[in-house]
Amino acid sequence: MQSLMLGIDGGGTRCRGRLTDERGQLLAEAYGGPANVWSHFEAAIDAIDRVIDDLFTQAALPPAARAQTVLVAGLAGANVASVKARLDSWQPVCQSRYVFTDVETACAGAHNGAPGAVFITGTGSQGAVWDGAQFTSLGGWGFALSDAGSGAVLGQRALRLALLAHEGIVPSSVLTQRIMAHYQDSPEQMLIWSRQATPADWGRIVPDVFATAHAGDAHGAALVQQTAADITQMIQPLLARSQKLALMGGLAAPIQPWLPADIVALLVPPQGDALSGALRLASQFSMNQPA
């Protein structure tokens, strides 16, 4: 039996899986629940295992096919050393198993397996460089400590600014008034909301920030400019290692007009995503398997 390639993209929102033959012919695709191995390890592994089972069921392959499979999983939270050690206990039936972070597989996907760098700016943020032999990553330590240039950080700054304006510490604007109106102009309501807010919750105001910035709102523009400065700072070490960088994530397109022209000139469009990157790595590793 020829080798099969199995790619997993495990994120905080959902898990995606794709199974192909060694020529890249699609055999099955499957989707499952959240798979962040840092925040919910057991649930993440369960979601991944269910996706793998679904893939082989869809492809109508015999159980023996699993032993001929090269599996590459890109998992959110796999950059944490203690989680990496814990992942050693996850041994699905396969020919070989490789675990990366989701930003590393995204980097492989963005450059179709060739050397290059990627910076993901969405609800969170993280960067990685692939030199053809190993990955170097930065960021990705969560909203409380990291995630510079992300939607969650931008959203939190916007709400902080709205509260300052509400109390007359700084001038108000259309943006700050709109934010406070969402909380019935009540700092207490905002406080109650903040106790349970997730990074995704903080990031929901981001489209309003960009809209008001484009309309000339001074606070909106300043917030977006600060995010652009954060992203510029984060990608400098990546560009020092690779002159080919792809910007990915929900903020990648809207933030580009706010980035310095010399940075934009170095950006390349991503050729693929984290799932295609996992399969690309699986194919490369398969070629190195002993006969």
From TrEMBL:
Gene Ontology molecular function terms on file: kinase activity
Q: Which parts of the sequence belong to the ATPase BadF/BadG/BcrA/BcrD type domain?
A: 6-252
Task: Enumerate the InterPro entries for this protein.
Answer: ATPase_BadF, ATPase_NBD, Euk-type_GlcNAc_Kinase
The record's keywords, sorted A to Z, are: Kinase, Transferase
SUPFAM superfamilies recorded for this chain? Actin-like ATPase domain
Q: Which domain of life is it from?
A: Bacteria
Q: What is this protein called?
A: Glucosamine kinase
Q: What organism does the record attribute this protein to?
A: Kosakonia oryziphila
| Organism ancestry | Bacteria, Pseudomonadati, Pseudomonadota, Gammaproteobacteria, Enterobacterales
